[in-house]
TrEMBL record:
Keywords: Coiled coil, Nucleus, Ribosome biogenesis. Residues 296-307 have a biased composition (Basic residues). The keyword Protein transport does not apply. It is found in: Nucleus. The keyword Magnesium does not apply. Belongs to the RRS1 family. The lineage of its organism: Eukaryota, Metazoa, Spiralia, Lophotrochozoa, Annelida. Residues 170-197 form a coiled coil. This is Ribosome biogenesis regulatory protein. GO terms for biological process: endonucleolytic cleavage in ITS1 to separate SSU-rRNA from 5.8S rRNA and LSU-rRNA from tricistronic rRNA transcript (SSU-rRNA, 5.8S rRNA, LSU-rRNA); ribosomal large subunit biogenesis.
Length: 343
């Protein structure tokens, strides 16, 4: 009986020895950040164990610090959510470093600066608006929008305006100019935020033209006459306009003597050589091929005539003799054979 009790106690002790205790003692308390699940251990390392038993020592140290973190997590308040026990982590204490710097605020546009100084607040406009002429609610934009400028069939001509000027076309042109002006202002705001320059596109003026731009404009203005700038008046101390076009390049009068020598020798060799300038091999070959083709065609035609005569004279005896005589006459050219063939 005593042996049985000792065996049970020994097995229990062996099981307990496999698992380490949850209590961990440190000389200096570690800093635990539950929000980021971070443990900072400021205790000094044991150099002897680190040199002799490096892996075992690091595993034990990691296990102890992890045990301290888990013990701290078990102290947090828990709640049950759909048969699952959860714990709410607090806010993190450690400030984590950023990968990139904090983005700088964008520079305010001119309108934002003006509205800020004047105290203008942005109000969201509704989709529908009241139209006094029609006396009903109409959409602010889109189909059948209210206060549509293009639906007026008559316009008043101002007193200081030209009576023959088309006011409808003038208003349409003014609207397009306003749209283009707003687009240019938007591009300028983007360029100012990106610290770049807006390229001069279309009819938009160049704010700071460079020297090349001005010289090119002057040259084009002088050449845009009927005489292509030949009789254009110039200022007293004005420099002659630069030629903006491409210049023809000729070979120099005194060039490389070796290249000139080789060129002259090539010409002399062509003159003294017996080879014809025009190649005669190709046309001769074509002519011979055409003669062979025509000869083959004639031979095939004769063979066709012979086969046709044999089929026609197949029934009678005289036809057979006539065919033999014809054959003799054709082969040997004898008069006898020809007469026999005629008979």
């Amino acid at each position: 009986m005593e042996d049985l009790v000792e065996n049970v106690l020994q097995s229990a002790a062996e099981k307990e020895s496999r698992y380490k205790t949850t209590e961990v003692h440190k000389d200096i308390d570690v800093d635990i950040d539950e929000g980021n699940l971070l443990v900072t251990d400021t205790n000094s390392l044991e150099l002897n164990n680190l040199r002799t038993k490096r892996d075992v020592y690091l595993k034990d140290l990691t296990r102890d610090n992890t045990q301290l973190l888990i013990n701290k997590l078990w102290e947090l308040p828990v709640q049950r959510v759909q048969d699952v026990v959860t714990a709410q982590l607090p806010a993190g204490k450690t400030r984590l470093p950023r990968e990139k710097p904090i983005p700088k605020p964008k520079e305010a546009t001119k309108w934002q600066q003006y509205s800020r100084t004047k105290g203008i607040q942005k109000r969201k406009k509704g989709r529908m608006m009241w139209d006094d002429e029609v006396k009903e609610w109409r959409p602010r934009w889109g189909y059948k929008r209210g206060e549509d400028e293009l639906r007026d069939w008559v316009l008043e001509v101002p007193q200081n305006a030209d009576p023959y000027e088309d006011q409808f076309e003038k208003r349409q042109k003014q609207r397009k100019e306003n749209v283009a002006k707003n687009e240019l202002q938007r591009l300028r705001n983007l360029a100012r935020n990106m610290k770049g320059k807006v390229p001069g596109i279309g009819l938009t003026p160049t704010e700071k033209p460079d020297k090349d731009h001005i010289s090119r404009a002057v040259t084009l203005a002088k050449k845009s006459t009927a005489s292509v700038g030949r009789f254009t008046e110039q200022l007293p101390k004005e420099k002659p306009a630069k030629n903006m076009g491409r210049k023809r390049k000729f070979e120099s009068n005194i060039g490389d003597m070796t290249s000139e020598k080789t060129r002259a020798l090539d010409i002399l060799n062509r003159v003294h050589s017996n080879a014809p300038i025009v190649g005669a091999s190709k046309p001769t070959k074509e002519m011979m091929q055409s003669e062979l083709r025509s000869r083959d065609a004639r031979r095939k035609a004769k063979q066709g005539q012979k086969k046709g005569g044999k089929e026609q004279n197949k029934g009678g005896k005289g036809g057979k003799k006539g065919f033999q005589g014809k054959q003799k006459g054709n082969n040997f050219g004898g008069k006898k054979g020809t007469k026999h063939g005629k008979k």
